[in-house]
Amino acid sequence: ILNVEQSPQSLHVQEGDSTNFTCSFPSSNFYALHWYRWETAKSPEALFVMTLNGDEKKKGRISATLNTKEGYSYLYIKGSQPEDSATYLCAFNTGNQFYFGTGTSLTVIP
Amino acid sequence: ETGVTQTPRHLVMGMTNKKSLKCEQHLGHNAMYWYKQSAKKPLELMFVYSLEERVENNSVPSRFSPECPNSSHLFLHLHTLQPEDSALYLCASSQGEIETTRTGNTGELFFGEGSRLTVL
């Protein structure tokens, strides 16, 4: 079993604040690193899939970076909004196997 | 609407019951997964089917029995479960690794909304 760690476990920020979280993963057997957003009572939805060291991806106010050599990825949210409240999961993909972290639960206070 | 549908959404069963969870995907994917989400734990992979063949079984107790009759449907048959099996069971689909390499697909998982299981 591969260890994928996410920090912090939970986060409360004020609307308009920018924030970031970390995902740490093994640096061997790397195929891809996924970020998912999971809102309460809904299904997890993919935000980003990153495969190359140094990758940076952006979707609106959310962006992510990847360092495969040291085994970490950062997710950034600029100007947080209440609708950003969700659990953010990262998953380390070795091919057909996905290893998930426990997630970072984000609450954006209006 | 992710294209992956799970039924039932909620299930309460006794330890001696037999029930099944159903998952259906309309995305043309060739891999399907069962994950278990317990409180404060990461999503735990239970089973993977690729091209309707089971490729992964992560030491799951035999009281959980998967079935994949075709590439669009996946079942999880439940029998003599324990209270500690109470959890959210998520189904997901993706394009498998071979297809990912050939078509450049990113292989992301598409999840259903889950079946919340309570074992009394």
Describe the structure.
The complex is a heterodimer of chains A (110) and B (120). In chain A, a hairpin with a 6-residue loop joins strand 4 and strand 5. Chain A contains no helices and 11 strands. In chain A, strands 2, 4, 5, 9, 10 and 11 form a 6-stranded mixed sheet that branches. In chain A, strands 1-3-8-7-6 form a 5-stranded antiparallel sheet, with no helix packed on it. The termini of chain A are far apart. The model of chain A has no long low-confidence stretch (mean pLDDT 93). With 110 residues, chain A is mainly beta. With 120 residues, chain B is mainly beta. Chain B has 1 helix and 11 strands. In chain B, strands 2, 4, 5, 6, 9, 10 and 11 form a 7-stranded mixed sheet that branches. In chain B, strand 5 and strand 6 form a beta hairpin. The longest helix of chain B has 7 residues. The N and C termini of chain B lie far apart (31 Å). About 7% of the residues of chain B have low confidence. The chains are: A mainly beta (110), B mainly beta (120). Chains A and B meet through strand 4, strand 5, strand 9 and strand 10 of A and strand 5 and strand 10 of B.
Largest sheet of chain B: 7 strands, mixed
Q: What is the end-to-end distance of chain A?
A: 39 Å
- Fraction in beta strands of chain B: over 45%
**General shape of chain B:** globular
What class would the helix/strand composition of chain A place it in? mainly beta
Tell me the major beta sheet of chain A: 6 strands, mixed
Number of strands of chain B: 11
List keywords for this structure.
heterodimer, A: 110 residues, mainly beta, 0% helix, 55% strand, globular, B: 120 residues, four-stranded antiparallel β-sheet, 1 helix, 11 strands
Provide a brief overview of the structure.
Chain A is built from no helices and 11 strands. With 110 residues, chain A is an all-beta fold.
